[in-house]
UniProtKB/TrEMBL annotation, chain A:
The name this protein goes by in its record: VPS9 domain-containing protein
Pfam families hit by this protein: VPS9 (PF02204)
Superkingdom of origin organism: Eukaryota
Annotated SUPFAM superfamilies: VPS9 domain
Stretches assigned to the VPS9 domain: 452-588
InterPro entries, per database record: VPS9, VPS9_dom_sf
Classification of source organism: Eukaryota, Viridiplantae, Chlorophyta, core chlorophytes, Trebouxiophyceae
Region (Disordered): 131-152
Automatic annotation (TrEMBL), chain B:
CDD domains, alphabetized: Rab5_related
Region (Disordered): 151-182
NCBIfam families found in the cross-reference section: small_GTP
PANTHER family, alphabetized: PTHR47978
Molecular function per GO: GTP binding; GTPase activity
SUPFAM superfamilies: P-loop containing nucleoside triphosphate hydrolases
Protein name per its UniProtKB record: Rab5
Matches recorded under InterPro entries: P-loop_NTPase, Small_GTP-bd, Small_GTPase
Length: 666, 182
């Protein structure tokens, strides 16, 4: 039995419109073509179609080798009963690297990147013939999965929802972490599979977040508006909307209404003026009103300008690079511009498919391009390369650390304004803590009857918090404060390090001037510099400093941090940690729902876990592969009862990341 | 009054026998190359105030060696040094080399910690030990030379290896014991 299988080369479908329209106009794709023996000859726009053998009754693929030989990333097909099957095939295409292209986590054994072994996705069955309802073929029909995950839960169909001339189908698992799958069908004639990405590891907590209202969690909903994904982000108790259109994040719309109980949401779509309604309370039972019409390329609003330039991102061209960086690059290594342009284009291609591991890709590219270069050149390379990605990447970090960032911002503002009080220390206590020479100076001030200098420079609350030696309270921290305040406007991680370096140099000079009255060589010890750094950080009040820290660390492996940069970054981390320890109760973030273990917590909060973090999870791995393996024999096997839900979640996420590191557990 | 860890490292880096020091950011971060040992020390100073104690792991994390400094005239500083040793043994890099330095040896008249007591403790915990004086430059170089000698070498000969070192007021147990100035 042979069926015609529509295949998208690019999962988000750069050619899907042409394909479908071509098929339609050629009259070669119609209900009758979905029959045994039907075939389509591959020609230019149709080269994305392939034929594949399938057992209609079992829904399994026999000719795996054939699929693999196609070297296409995905195969999606319907059998005559309307069953939808998706296969991610072995792939060498740079558009969709194996194991990275789509983060289909749930019970999907993603293609082994080494062996190119093909794995099957769970089959989502539509219990009706495709053509049984010509208007809304899938509306109201139950949908189930043959491979529920976790085993104690059941997949529940949330139904197909008409949206424009498309249908959105969703499923979810009855147990957390809730998976939701969505596939959109344009019509009954051609199958569109728009992957929702909801199952990606870092976005699993929507349902639970909705239930318990924990802050910082996020979940997404998808509109089948061409290739646009609309993410609903639950940040700091507020829902925000962000849309990815093609490879760009666009400001899509704003929330017009959110019901007090968090159960319903109305989005005002900026571009179409339509209102969309989502029912969030019923755990992924969607009620999407057909407000966003399916648009063809020519019908796109002009403000979506990047599209006419095709799939090569506009900003991947040299003339879009920052001029200051281009000047440096042209002067020193003109050939690097070409490399950066090409690398940026490739990264963007991958970004269009899935951005979970985009940081890893960027790190690899930057490592290659920056190796052996001067700091100035490295900064130019990084700035240029990350220019199109920087806002998105930093935004991702910000979403992950929004709660901490908000708390820190409020704490720093409160300390500067004097509105926020932390634990108080007497001057005598401070004198006991500070270095000998500082204590002497302070005693001398007291003996001479001079007034406390604290209020002249550093606010009392800040000085008290940091236990700033009295003689340092009148220090001029402005240079360091200015440098740290500029952390808000960095364009790449290396630029953040430059700001830190400037701040530290300024503080070192401050210590010298304060202590000796001249800019000598000895600039003070950590006993003085750390409190001053914390004070300067508070006075600078950079936004999103926690996100920034993780952003910088994400792009550099631990080995990069052995030198002065590493010391300065460790100091920033220490300062942030210190401030977090002194958050007033009202600013302290609520505990995460997955806070059983420190490893779990770290794993939850790390957007791109370092190898050291993975190493910390080795005990869990050993549990999986040890003498009495807790690991499941297959992705569809039940979890052993002794593995708690949290551990399951942890393992699943760990596996997801390990796949990102091209490691194979099995 | 501090134990003198910053003074110790400043004495080491600014010493007269080596000219490879790089002026960086005061005494908080210093580098020193020891050509004979093919070692470049990157020395991270940590704030000694109790208030900042909890931040220390961010500094000693990943360090190849640690020098724990106490003041021989202050019994309390020796107690704190022992607490640092426990912490590093518990949380530090398991392969970290540690040296215990009893600083202010020039103030032996005011001694509160006997050399025998400190030496026995170091022996018991597998630490290198010696009494130093940053002021009179006694045994300062020896402490770091001993560490440089004991640091593991890469299998392939390299012109220079970089070893991070954290300066605290104490170290861990798995490191090989050595008496740097005994």
């Amino acid at each position: 039995m042979r069926f015609v299988l529509p295949v998208q080369e690019d999962w988000m479908g750069s050619n899907i419109l042409e394909v479908n329209r071509d098929l339609m106009s050629a009259g070669r794709l119609h209900p009758g073509s979905m029959q045994e023996g039907a075939s389509i000859t591959a020609s230019r726009p149709l080269r994305h179609f392939a034929k594949c053998s399938q057992d209609a009754d079992q829904g399994t693929i026999r000719s795996v080798d054939h699929i693999r030989s196609l070297r296409l990333p995905f195969l999606a097909f319907l059998d005559r009963l309307g069953r939808l099957s998706i296969v991610k095939a072995g792939d060498n295409s740079k558009l969709a690297p194996a194991g990275r292209a789509v983060n289909i986590r749930n019970d999907v054994r993603i293609v082994d990147p080494v062996t190119q072994r093909v794995e099957l996705l769970p089959h989502l069955h539509v219990d009706q013939q495709l053509s049984s309802d010509t208007e809304r073929p899938f509306k109201g029909k139950s949908v189930s999965s043959t491979s529920a995950e976790p085993p104690n839960a059941e997949w529940k169909a949330c139904g197909w929802t008409p949206c424009g001339d498309m249908l959105l189908g969703t499923w979810r698992c009855s147990e957390p972490p809730f998976y939701t799958w969505g596939f959109a069908l344009m019509d009954q004639l051609s199958l569109r599979c728009i992957y929702t990405d909801v199952g990606s590891a870092d976005k699993m907590t929507w349902a639970s977040a909705t239930a318990n209202g924990s802050q910082g969690a996020r979940r997404m909903a998808y509109f089948p508006l061409l290739y646009t994904n609309l993410e609903l982000l639950h940040v700091n108790g507020k829902w925000q909307a962000e849309a990815n259109y093609l490879k760009h994040v666009i400001s899509y719309g704003e929330l017009a209404h959110l019901a007090p109980d968090g159960g319903s949401l109305v989005i005002h779509a900026a571009h179409t003026g339509c209102l969309s309604h989502l029912n969030l309370k019923s755990d992924a039972r969607w009620a999407v009103t057909p407000s966003l019409p399916w648009l063809f390329r020519e019908e796109l609003p002009p403000q979506w300008a990047p599209f006419p330039r095709g799939w090569t991102p506009a900003y991947a061209h040299v003339h879009d690079f920052p001029k200051d960086c281009v000047e440096v690059l042209q002067e020193q290594h003109a050939d690097l511009l070409v490399d950066i342009e090409e690398a940026a284009a490739n990264i963007q291609m991958e970004k269009s498919i899935g951005r979970t591991h985009i940081e890893d890709h960027c790190k690899l590219v930057l490592s290659r391009l920056c190796s052996g270069r001067s700091m100035e050149l490295q900064t130019c390379i990084e700035t240029t390369f990350l220019l199109p990605l920087h806002p998105d990447l930093l935004s991702n970090m910000s979403m992950s650390h929004a709660t901490e960032d908000e708390a820190l911002t409020r704490l720093m503002a409160g300390l500067v304004s004097g509105a926020c009080e932390v634990d108080k220390l007497s001057d005598d206590a401070i004198v006991k803590m500070m270095p000998a020479h500082s204590a002497s100076h302070h005693s001398a001030c007291r003996r001479s009857g001079s007034s406390s200098p604290a209020s002249r420079s550093v606010p009392q609350g800040v000085a008290t918090l940091c236990a700033l030696p009295p003689n340092m309270r009148k220090s001029d921290l402005q240079g360091a404060v200015d440098s740290l305040a500029r952390l808000d406007s960095i364009r790449c991680p290396l630029e953040a390090l430059q700001r830190l370096s400037e701040a530290y140099q300024a503080l070192s000079l401050t210590v010298r001037l304060t202590r000796y009255g001249h800019a000598g060589e000895d600039g003070g010890s950590a006993d003085e510099l750390l409190p001053l750094f914390i004070a300067a950080l508070v006075l600078a009040q950079p936004r999103g400093v926690m996100s920034l820290l993780h952003y910088v660390r994400t792009f550099h492996v631990a080995g990069d941090w052995a030198g002065q940069d590493g010391f300065q970054l460790a100091t920033l981390e220490a300062a942030i940690s210190f401030l977090m320890q002194h958050l007033p109760p009202e600013l302290t973030p609520p505990p995460s729902s997955y806070q059983d273990t420190s490893e779990c917590q770290s794993f939850m909060t790390e957007p791109a876990p370092t190898m050291s973090l993975l190493e910390a999870l080795v005990p869990w791995l050993l549990l999986c592969v040890g003498p009495s393996p807790l690991w499941r024999p297959s992705a569809t096997s039940p979890w052993p009862a002794e593995i708690s839900m949290d551990v399951r979640f942890l393992l699943r996420k760990m596996i997801s990341h390990l796949q990102g590191y091209h490691l194979c557990l099995r | 009054m501090g134990a003198g860890k910053s003074s110790l490292v400043l004495r080491f880096v600014k010493g007269q026998f080596f000219d490879y020091q790089e002026s960086t950011i005061g005494a908080a971060f210093l580098t020193k190359t020891m050509p004979e040992q093919h070692v470049k020390f990157e020395i991270w100073d940590t704030a000694g105030q109790e208030r900042y104690h909890s931040l220390a792991p961010m500094y000693y994390r990943g360090a190849a060696a640690a020098v724990i400094v106490y003041d021989i005239t202050n019994q309390d500083s020796f107690t704190k040094a022992k607490n640092w040793v426990k912490e590093l043994q518990r949380q530090g890099n398991p392969n970290m080399l540690m040296a215990l330095a009893g600083n202010k040896a020039d103030l032996a008249d005011s001694r509160a910690v006997t050399k025998e007591e400190a030496s026995a403790y170091a022996e018991e915990n597998g630490l290198a030990f010696c009494e130093t004086s940053a002021k009179t430059n006694v045994n300062v170089l020896e402490v770091f030379t001993d560490l440089a000698t004991r640091l593991p070498r890469p299998s392939a000969p390299q012109p220079q290896s970089t070893s991070g070192i954290t300066l605290t007021e104490q170290p861990p147990a798995s490191a090989r014991k050595s008496g740097c100035c005994s």
